[in-house]
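Question (not urgent): is this output format expected?
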Amino acid sequence: MEHDAPPAVIGPEQAALMRRRVSIIAATRDAQHHPHLMRALGCRLAPNRRELTLFLSTGACAELLADLRDNGRIAVVFSEPSTDRSLQIKGEGACIEPPAPGDAALVAHYVECFADEIAALGFDRVLVKTMFRHEPDELVTVRFVPREAYEQTPGPQAGARITP
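Got this back:
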């Protein structure tokens, strides 16, 4: 039962940051501890904040997906370019799944919002469109349970574990 479960590691403040115009980088490691990372195409946070789903392009993240199949461990960094506000989430038990109906629309919305963020900093929106280019049949989701959260905004609290 949910009332017996530990509190979600993602609090309301962190959830609000994740919903803003942020860069999302997913990272994994293989059995030899070699890192692999990929820019995510957006995310979906469960209403209870206990499950996180990332959107990725299979065309660019074969090693990352292989790592997840092998060990299920993932770290994700959310960073808002205009403020440098940053958050790291670590999870386990990651499941690779096909996209759900409506996920392609969420990805398109994310790309537009991130393009707005980058444009406000003086970069061409085409940069974002190029970075996130993918074929519709390449969309995949990675769903996992966040187990740890860390403040990563530059400053004295960087690296501090966030407790619920």
